Amino acid sequence: MKFRHFLATPPPSTPSFRSRSSLTLILIVFSVRILLIDLISVSVKGQTAGQRSLDQLDKADQGSAELMRHLRDIATKGVESDPAFLGEPRFGIGMPAGRYFYYDTPFKRAFVFPDSDLLAIPMEALVRATVFRRDFEKVVPKEPFWKEPLGNVLRSIESCVEDYAAFERNERAGGWKGPCADSIQSAFLELGQSVQRYANAHSIRPPDGLDGRSPAEGYEVTIIVSPPRARVKIMTALEYLKCGVARDSKSCLEREWIDQLSDKTNLIGEYRYRVEWPADLNGPDEGHFGITKRTTLTFTPNKGK
Amino acid sequence: MANESLRDFRSFLADFRGLSSLGLKATAVAPFAGIWLKTGLPLPGLMAGLTSLAEFITVMCLFQAMEKSTNPRLKKGMYVGIWFSAASMLGLLIVFVFLTMVPGSGQDRKVKGFVVQPNVAELINGTYTVADALRDTSYDPEKVWTTWSVKTSEILLQLFWLGTFISLASVLTCFSMLERRRLNARSPEKRVRR
Questions:
Q1: Scanning A108, A112, A299, B191, which has its CA 20 to 30 A from the CA of A53?
Q2: Looking at the domain assignment, is residue A213 inside a domain?
Q3: A122-135: per-residue pLDDT in tens?
Q4: Pick from B103, B136, B140: CB nearest A213
Q5: Domain spans, chain B
């Protein structure tokens, strides 16, 4: 099952990461938040570092460019300060030879900002984009395949932050609804597709598994999302069951979802799926499907496969 | 003396008259069939080459060791080989039946383990079996069984595979040597010297 490994192989799924992540979760949330407050407060007249909270920051008369710059600084610092957590590599080629890994599953937003924070979504995306930029510049600096899609990701984040700043300045009464998750995610999806095209063109494959596992080859499955306005995520039925009995059931499920970026993939056995339709198409839809032969899966809003 | 011995060995390998000699050659090639038959043998290409090499060394050593042996000793060697062959084949059959599976039609055979992982064992009950768990992991044995038990199964399969072919080669070597002696005894003037 190619895509299982395509996305599930990076170190974040390892036990050491899980234990570390649970231990560092609180530290990260608070340290990043404090760092943001420090960085912002020194640039705001008449304020002393640490005096302002993020909510107070909202009221500050800042341009979106300045806010974006601060967020970039925070993302860079977060990535550089902990290469084993926020800075965990997300793209690499050649270990083992002829293989690559690409991992774009979002961090839990609470790792960067509290979930309720309006900046949590762009901030999380910015951290991911920072890691991707670092990895691409290190591994394939001269290849053009990532530059435009990653630029689009950054533009979508910037536009999100601009909207947020505009809302803070003038439109608070109107109520800003959009945390821009959809546009950011589509930009990441485009980046993933570009990476896959590059991999196909260079005959490099995702690893069978970092631990050398070799699951069954499976059957070719064509995935159709109609209308094409949703992300499809899957996990094996056993992972779903395991998460059901796990103590941290909710976060376990969040960790195990694997994005299906390609129209075609190889699958076999039973799976749990989640199709993230936008709200106007009745929202996310979940269910099970089984693969015992070459087949086509069609996902439509609220009807499942 | 050494030249004569080598000549005898070459003559022995090149002797196409005897059915047993043909069988011996077939045995040396047979391991490669495992690659296409999708036997589930780990590292199939390497194992095929290794098995053929091991068979060749066995034939060579046996020929050297038994060339001067008496016929009763050769027969005894052959019977011992037959017992080893039978035991290895039985072992191979048991491993195939109990420790391998085919995920679906057209899929490669996979080696199973025999010790279920603790977090999977928690889920196993009357209605949810190990086979269900295996299906639910895309037939990834190492997600259901412990890695060491899967690796042990793989090693067992490789050992029985090697044992079967090596013992088969030794049986056929002894049998070929006996057959050659019988043929040479009948018509010494037609002794093959190539």
A1: A108
A2: no
A3: 888 898 999 999 99
A4: B140
A5: 2-190
Domain count, chain A: 2
Across chain B, the runs of DSSP E, i.e. the strands, are: 100-101, 110-111
A22 pLDDT tier (thresholds 50, 70, 90): very low
> Does one domain contain both A185 and A223?
no
What is the extent of the structural domain holding A236?
219-299
CB contact under 8 A, A213 and B142: yes
Average pLDDT over residues B43-72: 84
Name every residue in B having a CB less than 8 A away from some CB of A: 103-105, 107-108, 110, 119-120, 122-123, 128, 133-140, 142-144, 147
Handedness of CA A245, A251, A252, A258 (dihedral sign): positive
CA neighbor of A305 nearest in space, from A255, A271, A266: A271
**Taking CB atoms and an 8 Å limit, are B138 and A217 in contact across chains?**
no
Model's pTM, two decimal places? 0.54
Q: Work out the pLDDT band at A218, boundaries 50, 70, 90.
A: confident
Q: Establish whether this prediction's ipTM goes over 0.90.
A: no
Answer whether residue A296 shows pLDDT above 70.
Answer: yes
Contacts of B32 (CB under 8 A, 6+ apart): B48, B52
Tell me the DSSP string of A121-164: HHHHHHHHHHHHHHHHHHH-TT-STTHHHHHHHHHHHHHHHHHH
Q: Do A189 and A96 fall into the same domain?
A: yes
**In chain B, what residues touch A239 (CB-CB under 8 Å)?**
137
